[in-house]
Amino acid sequence: MRKINLTPTEEHKYQIIKAVVAKRKTIKRAAVELQLTERHVRRLKQAYLLNGKQVFQHGNHRLKTHQKFDIKCKNKIVMLYEKKYKN
């Protein structure tokens, strides 16, 4: 099993839903704290019970951005800037 790394926002949501599952908080209180509807809190609770902590991790978490430059391309641009197009 891999370690789930959550952002602070996702971690906060996870802790509150975990408290709802442990019956330390009500669904109504969790909805107010997360600024979500009670229906959505119930959905999060159900998803957490089925799939665990990974439910709170964003779907694009492991994907690379398409806008990021390849390191070789970046180095070539810097080299051209420094040598050929100096002025």
UniProtKB/TrEMBL annotation:
**Superkingdom field:** Bacteria
State the name under which the record lists this protein: Homeodomain-like domain-containing protein
User: What is the native source organism of this protein?
Assistant: Pediococcus ethanolidurans
